[in-house]
Fold:
Amino acid sequence: MTPPRRLTDSGQTLPLYIWLTGILLFAAIAFFVFAQAASARNGAQSAADAAALAAAQDSRQELMAGLQGAIGKNDDWLKWLRGEGLQGTGASAAAERLAADNDSTVQGGAVPTTVNGFPGYQVEIETRYTVGKSIIPGTETRHARAEAVAVIEPRCIVPSDADPKKPVHLDCDGQSVDVDPAHFGSDDLPDASVLFSVHLAK
Structure:
């Protein structure tokens, strides 16, 4: 007489183990793909931020040059302190250099814009590198894109009754700056960062 077979769970456990292993493997691959995409996006945003700031900083130097050239020349030099007269001729080139340093290219140059009445630049970039190979088709040829806006904000309060032909006292975020057009030297002005703030738009 053949003894009865003992029932076990081993036959049922193996398929469950294989199924759970497959789910975990898929989750790990999905997480890796997501991390790849997130890394590319972060790199693109960093490149866009740097390019926009470079464009704004270049134009800040243009404002400083215009300001220095106007003081004492019977010109309304106060307009330069308000961010007026800006041409931005070197903004796109400056943005392109910083984008290249971050392995990216600028799309359409540095586009002049205004934020809360202040001059600035909007820059869109595309990475030269791709998201990379993954289980999702096409990612090996897909480039990340991002955009950023940087603003040049005057820091100095110009008195409403200020006369560009007479000495002017300026309050630049708590730092005093005195300008006498009749006795002006290029070294009389502080660093550009004292007169103008450059920052990313929120």
